[in-house]
Amino acid sequence: MKKIFVLSGLSLFLLSACGSNNEEAKGGNEGNIGEGLYVTASFSVLADMTEAVLGERGEVDYIVPIGEEPHEYEPVPSDFRKVNESDVFYTNGLNLEEWLERIMDNAADTEIIEISEGVEPIPLEGEEAPDPHAWLSPKNAEYYIDNITADLSERDPEGAEIFEENAENYKQEIEDLSAEIEEGTAEIEEDQRMIIVSENAFKYFAEDFGFDSDGIWEMNSHEEGTSGQINRIIDVIQEREVPAVFVESTVDPRYMETVADNSGVEIAGEVYTDAIGEEGSEAASYIDMMRHNAETFIEGLSGNEAE
Ligand SMILES: [Zn+2]
């Protein structure tokens, strides 16, 4: 992820050094500065995927900082500026960015593209609205990548061949990862294939790899960690004899600590759902975060060290 920071810092420097001619700032292929596209994504996972396809032909930025969750984020003025200066703004859609209207009100000219298009939505428990966490399925990631590739190619036709090649390589890496997860998780016993985290965000992952999933609460923008929710999940853990639970990098761990203490199971590690990991961490890219999650589940649920 280093490049994202370096490039966005550079683009800010260039912008301030060259004044604020908006056409130039918008990039495209005409201006002297900002050669290539400038894309902003709503959160870090989408930015990482975009960077993999865009490669050297532009810059990628994102709005929600790593460590924060993208459901109820409150955009600040510099976010409006980023989106305004971008050639395009990539969102997940599927009910994720509840703050999108504020961006639209303040950055009306920039086109917004939902890059989850094509995904078969899984509804939230007891609701019709979709669960937004489709990126946690490697199969769905391919829709994201195809949508990114199509959009970038339209905006920068000269780069189309490169985008296509980058996307093919990236999708191959994701297919390899998927096979690796399939193989690694195969050692988890049938009755222990249950992922329990704070926010019930692993539905798409669970569907791909044959798990059940649950959470203390259904989605971060809903009510979080009421005693009713905590008691319910303790019952589920005890009934299913779940060997371990997990906590997310973007959620306050205290709720899950209460659950673990009261149900007598261990928190077997931290997983990444709504953000990639910090630079230098074991989950600093989409692929690394997915691999880390799978290894954490394998260790926690099978009692074996993941290789
Ligand atoms: Zn979430």
UniProtKB/TrEMBL annotation:
It is found in: Cell envelope. Residues 160-194 form a coiled coil. Keywords: Coiled coil, Metal-binding, Signal, Transport. GO terms for molecular function: metal ion binding. Its main location: other. InterPro entries: AdhesinB, Bact_metal-bind_prot9, Lipoprotein_PsaA-like, ZnuA-like. Pfam families: ZnuA. Gene3D superfamilies: Nitrogenase molybdenum iron protein domain. GO terms for biological process: cell adhesion; metal ion transport. The keyword Signal applies. The keyword Acetylation does not apply. GO terms for cellular component: cell envelope. Residues 1-25 form the signal peptide. Belongs to the bacterial solute-binding protein 9 family. This is Metal ABC transporter substrate-binding protein. It comes from Alkalicoccus saliphilus.
